[in-house]
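Go through this chain.

——
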Amino acid sequence: MALTLLKCHPYAWDAPNTTSSNEFPPLTFPSSSVFITCYLTAVNSPDGHGSYGQARIFISEYVADGKEHNGSWTCLTADKVTQVSFTLTAFDAQAEGVGLVFAT
């Protein structure tokens, strides 16, 4: 199976001394069969000192065949997808992640 990158988007979120979550604006593209994935690229302590906090990035929503699907996925494949949203959650951390959408 050959993959063609449709969208690649970096995300960053800062949550010092707290738990915070941010759902980023959705990525839109022409209807496609897709493989979607995401991963953390960095997790640091908010002040650059001390222990590291925790962070998580996930696919929080996608639209396939006109129907909205909500959940928590790190990767998925689906047909007729036109939109995807990623959420980055951090606890006492500065976190960065990447969301990728490939046409299959």
